[in-house]
């Protein structure tokens, strides 16, 4: 089978690319390993920034659809100290530039904007190889193959497409999340719900923090961040939910009970989410007929920019291809010239500082200054 534009990965970046190509009348096919859009939970809330993610949605012609899924009030921000004292409290007055939406709803919005059959579910890329003459073949785990003259790796941290362009592999970034949830929090966990407030809450401390989001309804979604080596986490048996919860909570001994309850009272087993990153400034020489976007191109530890950058990558690549309908290589070169410095700059935005787990005692004040500046 031959395909003119083949996109590997139906994440936000790959779907945005497919949508922008569709807006410009350019056919594309997206191959996704998951068997269906609902095969797994797609993660929590995302703040979509006016300087990158929203630009992508405008290029995709989907701003009205996006506004319909925004969770009102979730741009509220609180910073607490370990004793539960409120150090910073900013209400969502509707003037912020980072409205929040659920990742799953955002993804489904993009899927729904594409012609039926654009996404081929249940196609896990197993091997990718160059055929010469700017063509590449993708072999899938089900035994099928596709040959394409334009291959885009939108397949995340462990991209199968990346080796065509680069020898770089992600390495552990030194931090991990432990993910927990509280459901019906306002009635079942009122003290914790009050501490979190109406939007996002960060309780930072050197080497660790509790980060919480109020999602749809009164669900609280927590990311407990710890700066620890991988073997420290490997010593914890996460198949034993009670023991793992107790071990993680022990790192926050002495903290206010309304904060530690975000760990100990979890309605779900704790889930470990280690962070990986590609080398800062990762780039490659131009290889005809193939490129990367999103985490496949510039994976970093969480710093608030990843999903937004992936969407902007997809939109800008789609628009470059539309501007150069008869010169794919010119389009890819134009896209990469803008993407490389943009992603390198975003990578310098320190994830540890954003997460509040710097190794010194000034983290809280830096976070307050950062969020105060963003609110002006």
Structural class: alpha/beta
Shape: globular
Please, how many helices?
A: 14
- For the record, what is the CATH homologous superfamily label of the largest domain? FAD/NAD(P)-binding domain
Function: An FAD-requiring monooxygenase active on some tetracycline antibiotic derivatives, which leads to their inactivation. Hydroxylates carbon 11a of tetracycline and some analogs.
InterPro entries: FAD-bd (IPR002938), FAD/NAD-bd_sf (IPR036188), TetX_monooxygenase (IPR043683)
Organism: Streptomyces coacervatus
Domain FAD-binding: 4-344
What does this entry look like structurally?
Monomer. Belongs to the aromatic-ring hydroxylase family. TetX subfamily. An FAD-requiring monooxygenase active on some tetracycline antibiotic derivatives, which leads to their inactivation. Hydroxylates carbon 11a of tetracycline and some analogs. With 376 residues, the chain is α/β, with parallel strands linked by helices. It has 14 helices and 18 strands. The protein has helices spanning 12-23, 53-59, 63-69, 103-112, 185-188, 190-196, 230-234, 241-250, 257-264, 295-298, 306-323, 328-347, 351-355, 363-374; strands at 2-3, 6-8, 29-31, 45-47, 77-80, 86-90, 100-102, 119-120, 125-132, 135-140, 145-148, 151-153, 171-182, 200-205, 208-214, 220-226, 271-277, 290-292. The protein has a seven-stranded mixed β-sheet with strand order 6-5-14-15-16-13-17, with helices on both faces. A five-stranded parallel β-sheet has the order 8-3-2-12-18, with helices on one face. Strand 14 and strand 15 form a beta hairpin. The model has no long low-confidence stretch (mean pLDDT 93).
